[in-house]
Amino acid sequence: MITIKVTLKNLSSLTVAGGSTISSIDIPLNPLVLPPSSIKGAMRTAVSHAINVLGLLDGEYTSCGEIKPEKLKPCDVCSLFGYPNSKDSGCFTIEVDRKEVKRAYITRVSIDDKTQTASEGSLFTQEVIPTNNEFSFTIYYRCDLRLFKLLLYSILALRYWKLGRNSMIDVKVENTDEVCKSISCDEEVKSILSQLSDYMWG
Ligand SMILES: [Zn+2]
Protein backbone atom coordinates (compact mmCIF):
# COMPACT_ATOMS: atom_id res chain seq x y z
CA MET A 1 0.00 0.00 0.00
CA ILE A 2 1.34 3.42 -0.98
CA THR A 3 -0.02 6.51 0.73
CA ILE A 4 0.00 9.88 -1.04
CA LYS A 5 -0.88 13.00 0.89
CA VAL A 6 -2.27 15.70 -1.35
CA THR A 7 -3.23 19.32 -0.75
CA LEU A 8 -5.69 20.88 -3.16
CA LYS A 9 -6.34 24.59 -3.47
CA ASN A 10 -9.20 26.17 -5.38
CA LEU A 11 -8.04 29.10 -7.52
CA SER A 12 -11.57 30.27 -8.22
CA SER A 13 -14.71 29.90 -6.14
CA LEU A 14 -15.63 26.24 -5.80
CA THR A 15 -19.00 24.54 -5.82
CA VAL A 16 -19.33 20.79 -5.95
CA ALA A 17 -23.09 20.50 -6.12
CA GLY A 18 -25.31 17.54 -5.45
CA GLY A 19 -26.96 18.74 -2.30
CA SER A 20 -30.54 18.49 -1.21
CA THR A 21 -33.06 20.47 -3.21
CA ILE A 22 -34.97 21.31 -0.03
CA SER A 23 -33.07 24.53 0.40
CA SER A 24 -33.56 28.22 -0.14
CA ILE A 25 -30.34 28.15 -2.16
CA ASP A 26 -30.70 27.09 -5.78
CA ILE A 27 -27.30 25.43 -5.98
CA PRO A 28 -26.11 24.34 -2.52
CA LEU A 29 -22.77 22.71 -1.76
CA ASN A 30 -22.67 18.95 -1.61
CA PRO A 31 -23.21 17.76 2.00
CA LEU A 32 -19.70 16.24 1.85
CA VAL A 33 -18.35 19.63 0.59
CA LEU A 34 -15.63 17.84 -1.42
CA PRO A 35 -16.72 14.25 -2.09
CA PRO A 36 -13.90 11.77 -2.84
CA SER A 37 -15.85 10.57 -5.88
CA SER A 38 -15.73 14.08 -7.37
CA ILE A 39 -11.95 14.24 -7.04
CA LYS A 40 -11.62 10.78 -8.52
CA GLY A 41 -14.00 11.65 -11.35
CA ALA A 42 -12.08 14.84 -12.19
CA MET A 43 -8.76 12.94 -12.21
CA ARG A 44 -10.24 10.31 -14.51
CA THR A 45 -11.66 12.80 -17.00
CA ALA A 46 -8.53 14.95 -16.90
CA VAL A 47 -6.14 12.09 -17.63
CA SER A 48 -8.42 10.58 -20.30
CA HIS A 49 -8.46 13.97 -21.98
CA ALA A 50 -4.65 14.12 -21.80
CA ILE A 51 -4.38 10.68 -23.42
CA ASN A 52 -7.13 10.84 -26.04
CA VAL A 53 -7.49 14.50 -26.95
CA LEU A 54 -4.08 16.01 -26.23
CA GLY A 55 -2.20 12.85 -27.22
CA LEU A 56 0.10 13.06 -24.22
CA LEU A 57 1.87 10.20 -22.44
CA ASP A 58 3.36 8.95 -25.74
CA GLY A 59 0.83 6.19 -26.32
CA GLU A 60 2.04 4.50 -23.13
CA TYR A 61 -1.45 4.26 -21.69
CA THR A 62 -4.90 3.53 -23.05
CA SER A 63 -8.26 5.09 -22.22
CA CYS A 64 -11.52 3.75 -23.62
CA GLY A 65 -13.26 6.97 -22.57
CA GLU A 66 -15.85 4.81 -20.79
CA ILE A 67 -17.62 4.28 -24.08
CA LYS A 68 -17.38 0.51 -23.96
CA PRO A 69 -16.43 -0.35 -20.41
CA GLU A 70 -17.72 -3.87 -21.03
CA LYS A 71 -14.92 -4.47 -23.52
CA LEU A 72 -13.02 -7.70 -22.86
CA LYS A 73 -9.62 -6.11 -22.61
CA PRO A 74 -9.76 -3.42 -19.95
CA CYS A 75 -8.05 -0.11 -20.69
CA ASP A 76 -5.47 1.34 -18.31
CA VAL A 77 -7.76 4.12 -17.10
CA CYS A 78 -10.52 1.64 -16.19
CA SER A 79 -7.98 -0.62 -14.46
CA LEU A 80 -6.72 2.29 -12.40
CA PHE A 81 -10.04 3.99 -11.60
CA GLY A 82 -12.42 1.04 -11.66
CA TYR A 83 -15.42 0.61 -13.87
CA PRO A 84 -18.26 3.12 -13.85
CA ASN A 85 -21.35 1.85 -12.05
CA SER A 86 -19.56 -1.10 -10.56
CA LYS A 87 -18.30 -1.91 -7.09
CA ASP A 88 -14.75 -2.27 -8.38
CA SER A 89 -12.97 0.79 -7.04
CA GLY A 90 -9.86 0.17 -9.15
CA CYS A 91 -6.40 0.59 -7.69
CA PHE A 92 -6.96 3.31 -5.11
CA THR A 93 -9.30 4.99 -2.69
CA ILE A 94 -9.42 8.60 -1.55
CA GLU A 95 -10.15 9.93 1.91
CA VAL A 96 -10.78 13.65 2.33
CA ASP A 97 -9.91 15.25 5.68
CA ARG A 98 -12.94 16.83 7.23
CA LYS A 99 -12.76 20.51 7.92
CA GLU A 100 -15.01 23.47 8.35
CA VAL A 101 -15.03 25.73 5.32
CA LYS A 102 -16.09 29.29 4.88
CA ARG A 103 -19.14 29.56 2.69
CA ALA A 104 -20.31 32.42 0.58
CA TYR A 105 -23.33 33.01 -1.58
CA ILE A 106 -23.33 34.52 -4.99
CA THR A 107 -26.26 35.50 -7.11
CA ARG A 108 -26.03 34.90 -10.77
CA VAL A 109 -28.13 35.56 -13.82
CA SER A 110 -28.69 32.90 -16.43
CA ILE A 111 -28.00 34.12 -19.92
CA ASP A 112 -30.29 33.13 -22.75
CA ASP A 113 -28.16 31.37 -25.37
CA LYS A 114 -30.12 32.71 -28.34
CA THR A 115 -30.40 36.36 -27.46
CA GLN A 116 -27.27 36.63 -25.27
CA THR A 117 -29.26 38.61 -22.74
CA ALA A 118 -30.41 37.81 -19.24
CA SER A 119 -33.44 35.55 -19.22
CA GLU A 120 -36.32 37.05 -17.32
CA GLY A 121 -36.70 35.94 -13.70
CA SER A 122 -33.51 33.99 -13.97
CA LEU A 123 -31.58 35.05 -10.88
CA PHE A 124 -30.21 32.09 -8.97
CA THR A 125 -28.19 31.76 -5.81
CA GLN A 126 -25.16 29.52 -5.60
CA GLU A 127 -23.30 28.50 -2.49
CA VAL A 128 -19.51 28.64 -2.99
CA ILE A 129 -16.26 28.08 -1.15
CA PRO A 130 -14.26 31.29 -1.64
CA THR A 131 -10.97 31.29 -3.54
CA ASN A 132 -7.72 29.90 -2.04
CA ASN A 133 -9.18 27.38 0.35
CA GLU A 134 -6.97 24.37 0.98
CA PHE A 135 -8.20 20.81 1.36
CA SER A 136 -6.16 17.77 2.35
CA PHE A 137 -6.84 14.30 1.12
CA THR A 138 -5.06 10.96 1.18
CA ILE A 139 -4.79 8.44 -1.65
CA TYR A 140 -4.31 4.75 -0.77
CA TYR A 141 -2.83 2.91 -3.74
CA ARG A 142 -2.58 -0.86 -4.13
CA CYS A 143 -1.48 -1.86 -7.70
CA ASP A 144 1.76 -1.96 -9.71
CA LEU A 145 4.34 0.69 -10.59
CA ARG A 146 3.13 1.19 -14.16
CA LEU A 147 -0.38 2.21 -13.10
CA PHE A 148 1.09 4.17 -10.20
CA LYS A 149 2.73 6.45 -12.75
CA LEU A 150 -0.64 6.91 -14.44
CA LEU A 151 -2.07 7.85 -11.05
CA LEU A 152 0.62 10.52 -10.62
CA TYR A 153 -0.11 11.83 -14.12
CA SER A 154 -3.80 12.01 -13.18
CA ILE A 155 -2.96 14.21 -10.20
CA LEU A 156 -0.83 16.45 -12.46
CA ALA A 157 -3.64 16.64 -15.02
CA LEU A 158 -5.97 18.16 -12.39
CA ARG A 159 -4.02 21.42 -12.71
CA TYR A 160 -5.27 21.82 -16.26
CA TRP A 161 -8.78 20.60 -15.55
CA LYS A 162 -11.72 21.79 -13.47
CA LEU A 163 -13.54 20.62 -10.43
CA GLY A 164 -17.23 20.91 -9.63
CA ARG A 165 -18.86 23.78 -11.45
CA ASN A 166 -15.84 24.96 -13.40
CA SER A 167 -13.46 25.70 -10.58
CA MET A 168 -9.74 25.92 -11.36
CA ILE A 169 -7.56 24.10 -8.88
CA ASP A 170 -3.92 23.49 -8.03
CA VAL A 171 -2.51 20.45 -6.25
CA LYS A 172 0.71 19.42 -4.52
CA VAL A 173 1.97 16.25 -2.87
CA GLU A 174 3.13 16.70 0.72
CA ASN A 175 5.05 13.46 1.25
CA THR A 176 7.10 13.08 -1.96
CA ASP A 177 10.18 11.61 -0.15
CA GLU A 178 8.05 9.02 1.58
CA VAL A 179 6.30 8.09 -1.68
CA CYS A 180 9.66 7.72 -3.40
CA LYS A 181 10.87 5.37 -0.68
CA SER A 182 7.74 3.24 -0.70
CA ILE A 183 8.18 2.27 -4.37
CA SER A 184 11.28 1.71 -6.48
CA CYS A 185 11.39 5.35 -7.47
CA ASP A 186 12.82 5.62 -11.02
CA GLU A 187 13.72 8.78 -12.96
CA GLU A 188 10.22 9.17 -14.36
CA VAL A 189 8.56 8.97 -10.93
CA LYS A 190 11.20 11.35 -9.51
CA SER A 191 10.44 13.84 -12.25
CA ILE A 192 6.67 13.76 -11.74
CA LEU A 193 7.04 13.95 -7.96
CA SER A 194 9.32 16.96 -8.26
CA GLN A 195 6.67 18.70 -10.39
CA LEU A 196 4.10 17.80 -7.75
CA SER A 197 6.18 18.89 -4.77
CA ASP A 198 4.86 22.43 -4.90
CA TYR A 199 1.94 24.32 -6.39
CA MET A 200 2.29 25.22 -10.05
CA TRP A 201 0.02 28.25 -10.18
CA GLY A 202 1.45 29.73 -6.96
ZN1 LIG B 1 -11.78 1.70 -20.08
Walk me through this protein's architecture:
The structure is a single chain. The protein is α+β, with helices and mostly antiparallel strands and 202 residues long. The chain has a single domain (2-18, 30-100, 133-196), classed as 2-Layer Sandwich (Alpha-Beta Plaits). The protein contains five helices and six strands, in the order E-H-H-E-E-E-E-H-E-H-H. It has helices at residues 36-52, 76-81, 145-157, 176-182, 187-196; strands spanning 2-10, 92-96, 104-111, 118-128, 134-141, 169-173. The strands form two sheets. It has a four-stranded antiparallel sheet with strand order 2-5-1-6. Helix 1 (36-52) packs across helix 3 and helix 3 runs parallel beside helix 5. The longest helix is centred in the first third of the chain and has 17 residues, at 36-52. The chain is globular and about 60 Å long. The model has no long low-confidence stretch (mean pLDDT 90). Bound molecules: zinc ion. Residues 64, 69, 74-75, 77-78 line the site of zinc ion.
Please tag this protein with its features.
202 residues, alpha+beta, Alpha-Beta Plaits, 5 helices
